[in-house]
Amino acid sequence: MTEIRVFEGILAANKRLAEQNRRLFGSRDVLVINVLGSPGSGKTTLLEQTIREVGRTSGLSIGVIEGDVATRRDAERIGALGVPVIQINTAGGCHLDANMLDSVLDELPLSKIDILFIENVGNLVCPAGFDLGEHAKVTVLSVTEGDDKPTKYPAAFLKSACTVITKTDLLAQTNFNMDVAIADLKAINSSLEVFQVCNTTGDGIEAWTQWLLAKRNAGREQDGGDER
Amino acid sequence: MTEIRVFEGILAANKRLAEQNRRLFGSRDVLVINVLGSPGSGKTTLLEQTIREVGRTSGLSIGVIEGDVATRRDAERIGALGVPVIQINTAGGCHLDANMLDSVLDELPLSKIDILFIENVGNLVCPAGFDLGEHAKVTVLSVTEGDDKPTKYPAAFLKSACTVITKTDLLAQTNFNMDVAIADLKAINSSLEVFQVCNTTGDGIEAWTQWLLAKRNAGREQDGGDER
Q1: How many CB pairs under 8 A join A and B?
Q2: pTM for the full model?
Q3: Which end of chain A is less enclosed by CB atoms within 10 A, N or C?
C-alpha cells in the first residue's frame, strides 16, 4: 500500500507542475506537443522532416526538447537544422516528468517559438503516465514494430490526439496490416487522428504538418489550451 | 530523498525474491533466460524460431513466461507450438519483477522444463533494473530500430550475456551499420556475445541456439548458476 500511495503523491505533484508549465506555454503563445513512441520508431526523424516542412510552408518557428536516457545525439541532429534545442538526459530514467521540463524552460526563447516539440524517452509504456504541460500527445508507431502494438500497449494511444505511422516504405517487407492497425487504434481511441508517413521519401509529411498547423491555429483562437 | 529510499527498498525486496526464484530454478535444473527488448524488436518471433530449432536439434524441453502490459496474444502464439506457457499481464506496469514471477511459478511443470524463457514487457529501459532470478539476460535489438540504440539505451546491453540482432533481412532497406552497432555493443559490454538472425528466413538461428545449449550444459556442470 505504501508503494501505491507514494506513486500517487508523485503523480499529484507532477500534475501541479504540469499545469504550471501549461500556463507558462499559454502566456508565451506556444503550442506544445509531447511525442511518444518506442526506441527507433522514428520520432527524431519525423521531427527533422517536420521542421523542414513547417519551414517551407509557413513562417512559424519551432523549438525542441529532447529527452533521452543517455547521449546528446538527438539534440545534435535537431540542432543541425538551426532550431533551438535542449537535451534532457534522464540518467537511466524511463520518462520525462513536469519537473524536468520546468528546470530547462528558462533556457529556451519561448516567446520566439510557435510550436515546441518534446521528444520523450523512447518507451511506449511509462511516458504515457506523466503530463508535462503539453497541449497534445502524439504517438509515433513504426510499421516494423508490428500491427499488434496498439492493442498490446494501449495507454499511449489512448492519451494521444494523433498517431503517426512511420516507415511505410517497408510495408511490403513486413506482415504489418494497415487496416488492422487503424481499426485497433480507433477501437482504443475513437477520436484519434492517424497519419501514415515515410520519413525517407517525405510521403505523408504534408498531411501531418497541416494537422499540426491547424492545431496551432485552433489553440490561438481558444487563447490557450489544455491537456487532451 | 524519500522517493529514492522507497525505490531502494523495492529493489532490495526484489533482489531477495529473485535469489529465492534462482534457488528454485537450480533445484529443478532449469536454465532461465530473461529476454529484453523494445516493442516490436522480434522477441516473440525469436522464441518461436528458437523453440522449433531446439526441438529439431536436441531433446530439451522449453517453457515460456510471457510478460505484457495487456492481451494474451504472445502466450497464444507460443502455446500454439505445444510448449508450456504462462501469461503475466502487468496491467499497465512497465516491467516484470521477481514477485510477479514467484506468483506464477507453481503453474509451470518446472521439473520437466530444461530451458525457461521469460519474455519481459517490451521496453528497453525499465526491465533492465529488475533481477527476476534468471541465469542470464538476453537483449533483442532489431535492425529497424537503428544502430544508435545500444549507446542511447545502454543499461539492458550492459547487463546482458548476449544480444540478438534481428530483422537482418531489412539491412539493405535501412541505414543500420552492423559494424558500428557491434563496436558500440562491445564498448558497453566487452564480454557480450552478439548474434545476427533473420526470424523470417531462419538465418543465424542455429548459432544462437548453439550458444543457448552450451550455456545450458555449462550451467549443469556448475550445478546451479547465478545472475550474469
Answers
A1: 122
A2: 0.94
A3: N
